[in-house]
Specification:
mainly alpha
């Protein structure tokens, strides 16, 4: 469904922005290259104009979606939340309906999820009691499942059907990347869906 030319596989497999740019610069011209460069610039540009390089703006927007998950019981905050979610979806190009672009975006979304998941193995991830109790590997996997679910399917189903439809490719990409992360993710994802 989201097939792309195999020549793009090394680019979408790499998570380091600088290495991705090197791969991108070495690619032969093809129909995908212009759009991929555009997406690269969107993802790694300094949106806040603070003079930083290689800021993964899309990774930050994942975290923002997770922070917005489950919030908004008051009417005023709910309206702000919906506005913020729609702004994030626009930044992540979820309004793009071009079939070719959707295939490229699916792989870029998977790359974003992969980069997030690579941070979930650090020593401080999923720790508790103000960092004094370190999480074991299994606890980190369960927490990563929860995080990925919240920043994709969780936030989508907590909102309108319109938002769920806009986020469909994002949800599929994050789910697929999580399923490749560890074998226990499938059962945990299904459990999160049921709750």
């Amino acid at each position: 469904m989201y097939e792309i030319d195999g020549i793009l596989t090394p680019y979408f497999s790499e998570t380091d922005p600088e290495k991705r740019l090197i791969i991108l610069d070495k690619m032969p011209d093809n129909e995908a290259l212009d759009f991929i460069r555009e997406v690269y610039e969107d993802r790694y540009s300094d949106h806040e104009k603070k003079g930083r390089k290689n800021v993964d703006w899309w990774l930050w927007r994942c975290i923002c979606l997770q922070l917005l998950y489950g919030r908004g019981s008051f009417f005023i905050f709910r309206a702000f939340k919906r506005h913020e979610i729609n702004a994030i979806l626009n930044e992540l190009r979820m309004n793009d309906n071009d079939d070719f672009h959707i295939r490229i975006l699916y792989h870029e979304y998977r790359n974003t999820a992969r980069r997030y998941l690579s941070t979930c193995k650090s020593s401080g991830y999923a720790s508790s009691f103000m960092g004094f109790k370190q999480a074991d590997d299994k606890e980190k996997i369960y927490r990563a499942c929860q995080d990925i679910w919240q920043m994709s399917k969780g936030i989508a189903i907590s909102e309108s059907l319109e938002i769920q439809n806009k986020m469909k490719v994002w949800i599929n990409a994050f789910h697929d990347e999580l399923m490749d992360y560890d074998d226990i993710c499938r059962d945990e994802y299904e459990r999160l869906d049921r709750n």
